[in-house]
Structure formats: structure tokens, C-alpha cells
Design goal:
Elements: E1 2-6, E2 17-25, E3 33-38, E4 46-50, E5 59-68, E6 81-84
Length: 87
């Protein structure tokens, strides 16, 4: 569990789409782990709780996508934001 501070994302319509946070885990092969869904209601800075759906052992990056409402298990959309974790 943790938090991510974001700003500058366009407002979304939660009935149609939601932002989804992804965590890249160096311990896992394959797809990133979903860190939860969130909505942007205004252009203010947001603090997003990170609540991974699976255990994360060695996070190396975070990414944000815009998905259908309710989210997806595996994203095929473009990553709107990507932030690497430095050593």
C-alpha cells in the first residue's frame, strides 16, 4: 500500500472510462500488476492510493492508462504516464 501524487490528467467520465494505475514488478515476468482505478474530477493535484490486486515484490515503475469503466485485467491501451523508480 502506498500513495501516488498526480496532476494534469484530463477529467474523465466515470460511466464511460476510468484511469487505471499499473505497477511494473521486476520479480514478475509478463504483465504489470493493477494498482487500482481512479477518476479525475478536476484539474487539482490528486493523491491516489496504490492498492495492488496482487503482491508486488520489487516495483520498478508505475504507469497510468485510461480504460473502460471498471478497469481491465490486461491493458492494451497506451500508457499515458510512466514513472520509473530510481535505485
Amino acid at each position: 500500500m502506498g500513495y501516488l501524487r498526480l496532476s494534469g490528467l484530463p477529467v474523465n467520465n466515470p460511466a464511460r472510462s476510468q484511469y487505471q494505475l499499473w505497477i511494473v514488478d521486476a520479480h514478475r515476468d509478463g504483465y504489470p500488476v493493477s494498482g487500482g482505478l481512479f477518476d479525475v474530477m478536476n484539474d487539482d493535484e490528486m493523491i491516489i492510493p496504490v492498492d495492488p490486486y496482487l503482491p508486488v515484490y520489487r516495483p520498478t515503475a508505475f504507469a497510468v492508462t485510461l480504460e473502460k469503466s471498471g478497469g481491465v485485467v490486461v491493458s492494451d491501451g497506451p500508457m499515458l504516464l510512466v514513472a520509473a523508480i530510481g535505485d
